[in-house]
Amino acid sequence: MERTPEPDLMNGKAQAKAYAEADFSEPHENFVDLFKEYFSRENGSSPEEVLTENVLDLGCGPADVIVRFANRFTKCNIVAVDGADLMLEHAREAINKAGLVDRITLQKVYLPDEPIKHMDYQAIISNSLLHHLKDPQSLFSCE
Ligand SMILES: C[S@@+](CC[C@H](N)C(=O)[O-])C[C@H]1O[C@@H](n2cnc3c(N)ncnc32)[C@H](O)[C@@H]1O
Asked: Is 92 exposed, middle or buried (0-12, 13-18, 19+ CB in 10 A)?
């Protein structure tokens, strides 16, 4: 079967606004719950306690997931990347509003071609990005 990916970057003004204003509270809280469950199982400790370093979020969109993540796991810092300027503007607004500017750094990156801020990441998260990429496998070889 031939795969037809969505257009990758969400840079339309109306599209970015509609996505930023949509209520994703249930799936996004569930994402954070599942992260906690898997992380605890793999590491034998809860992320509230041991997630104290940097976390990378790929395709952060308007930052709803990472704001929830940062509010739950309060000892980590987050680098969040997206290739769409408009989404990053919504993300910046949400992060300011949540008072998380000291802990969340935004970076414009087009994946998989452009390099991500190089540092050690204790965890890498991503929600609803893979289906946008022309070659999903490329996500696993980003540098
Ligand atoms: C469906 S949204 C998901 C946003 C966020 N992770 C969430 O769960 O709310 C997908 C995001 O990935 C971004 N994106 C898609 N393809 C990308 C690419 N090749 N490089 C960087 N960002 C990309 C889009 O601009 C959009 O903000």
From this structure: middle
Using the 8-state DSSP alphabet, how is residue 46 labeled?
-
Q: Secondary structure of 102-123 in the HEC alphabet?
A: CCEEEEECCCCCCCCCCCCCCE
Q: What's the rounded Cα separation, in Å, for the pair 17 and 45?
A: 38
Closest ligand 1 atom, CA of 11?
A: 25
d(CA 6, CA 55): 26
User: What are the pLDDT digits (tens) for 96-130?
Assistant: 999 999 999 999 999 988 888 888 999 999 999 98
Ligand 1 centroid to Cα of residue 43, in Å, is 28
Whether the CB of 129 sits within 6 Å of ligand 1:
yes
Closest CA to 38 of 140, 124, 108: 124
Is the distance from CB of 11 to CB of 84 less than 8 angstroms? yes
Whole-structure pTM value: 0.95
> In the numeric block, which tokens belong to residue 36?
């906690």
What gap in Å lies between CA 47 and CA 28, rounded to an integer? 17
